Amino acid sequence: MPLTSYTALQTAFAADIRGAANRAHIGKIYRASMEFLAKAQREPLRSLIPNKEYFAFRMGTKLSRPVNAALFVKRTGEWDKLDNALQRKSLSKLNPDQVTRIIYSVAMAFCCFIDLTKDRDQKTPGTFFEYLIGHLFASHLGVNPITRIQVLNLDMETWLPTDFIFDLGKDRPKFHLPIKLSTRERIIQVFAHQRVIDGVFGTERFLGTPVILAETKRSVARRDVTEICVPDQCRVYQLHMAQLKRLYYLDVPATYEKLNHVFPPIVVKSFGHFFFEADTLSA
Amino acid sequence: MPLTSYTALQTAFAADIRGAANRAHIGKIYRASMEFLAKAQREPLRSLIPNKEYFAFRMGTKLSRPVNAALFVKRTGEWDKLDNALQRKSLSKLNPDQVTRIIYSVAMAFCCFIDLTKDRDQKTPGTFFEYLIGHLFASHLGVNPITRIQVLNLDMETWLPTDFIFDLGKDRPKFHLPIKLSTRERIIQVFAHQRVIDGVFGTERFLGTPVILAETKRSVARRDVTEICVPDQCRVYQLHMAQLKRLYYLDVPATYEKLNHVFPPIVVKSFGHFFFEADTLSA
Known about the structure:
Oligomer: homodimer
Largest sheet of chain A: 4 strands, antiparallel
Structural class of chain A: alpha/beta
Strand content of chain A: 15-25%
C-alpha cells in the first residue's frame, strides 16, 4: 500500500531530509502507486496546449488529474537509475530531460493514486511533493534545509517561517526553495517571499529557485486540459518585486517557456537541469 | 429569498458600483437573510479570544461560521440609518463603532445564510463581501473603482489585474482596496500587491487600505473560536515589502490591534473609521 510507506516517510522525513532512508521510502511509495495504477484505465484527454498530450487514470467514477503522456515513464526501474546516481553522487549517466521525467513520474503516480482513492484530498499530494523535491534538492546539495530564519533588526527580533532554505556556508549564496504542485494566479506569493528575504538579508544573499509540478487544469465538465498561466504578471513581478534565479517546473508550461526569450528574461527550466547546474548557480 | 436579491445585485453591480441601486439590493439581501436566520437557533461557542464572545447559527446539522455577539446588531433598521446617511452624504449622526457594527451585521447575516443552506460554498460569501465593501467605499468617495491598471514601461505594455482601485484625480493619492473575508497566513498577498503597485507607479501614489471581515476560525471538532494572526510577520512585511496606510477590519483581531502600539506602527482600525477619516487620508 502506498499509504503505509507514506506514513513511514512522514515519520522519518525531518530527522535527516537528505538521508538515503527518505529516498528508500519514496521508492516504495512510487512502486506501490504504480502497482495500484496498473489496475486503472488510461483515458485520453483533449489537450488545448500545443504539442502536449495528456491522459487521466480512471477507476470507477473517479478520474485523476491530467498526466503528461510524454513525461510519464512506464518502467519503475528508471527511478533506480536516479537513486543509484544520487547514491554515487554522480549523474553523468543521466541527462536533464531523463531526470525530469523520472521525478515527474514519481510525483504524479502518488498524486493520481490519491485522486483515485480519496475525496478532495489536496494536502497529501502537496506534502508528498514537498518531501520529494525537498529530499532530492538536499541530497544533491549534501545539506539539510531549515524552514525558518531569524530576523534581527535593531529592537526587533522575530522568526520568519519560510519554505526550505539551504545554507551552503559562508561566502556562498543560500537557496530559497518554494515547492508547489501548481501556482496559477497565486504565483505572486513566490515572488513575495523572495522579496521579504531580499529585504531582510539583502539582494542576492538567497537564490530563489522555486520548483513547481505543473500549471495544468482539467475542466470538470469536459475532458479539456489547459494551463493557467500569467506570464505578463510574472514579468511585472520579476521587475518590481523580486528576481527569481530560476523557475523550475517538472512539466514546463508552454507560455512560461517563452519568458526565457523576453528581455529581461526569467529563466524557466525543467527541474532536471538543477542537478547539472547547481554548482554554477551557487558558485 | 436572499438569493433572488443577490442575483439581482450580481447583474446590476458593475454598471454603477457606487449607485444607490446596489445599496437597495444589499438592503433586501440583508433583510431576507435576517428573516431566514430568525428561524435558526443561536448556539454559544467557546471563545478563546479575550473579551470577545461568539455564537453560531444552527439549523438541523448545519452550523454557521462564528459571529461576534457584540458586533451583530439585532434590528435591521440600523442599516436604514447608514443607507440614509450615505444618501444624504452626511454621517454626522453616526459614529465609527456604530457603522462598523451595521456593516459587520449585513456581511455576516448573508454569510451565515449561505453557511446554513449550501455545502462548502466560500465563493458566494466572498463575492458578496466584495460587492458590499466595494459599493460602500465607492459611495462614500463618490467615485467608481477600476479593477486593472496599465503598466507602460519602455518596450513593455501590459495590464495588471488589481483589487479595486479608486482614482480621485490629479494631485491626490489613489486608493488600493483589497477586500477579503479573512487572510490568515495569506496576508502576505495584500502587502505583495501593494509592493507591485508601489514598484510600478512609485511609493505613496496608491494608499493601501485593505478591508477584511475577520480572522476567526472555529475548530471543526469542538466549539472553540480562535483568531489566526501573524503579527510579527506583518511587521516584517510592513518594513520590507510595502507600507499599508490602514488595515481595516470589521471584527478587529486582538493581536493585530496591538500593531498600533509598536514602532513603526501599522494602523489597524475598525472599518467604520474609514467614513470619518477618508478625507484626511486622501488629502
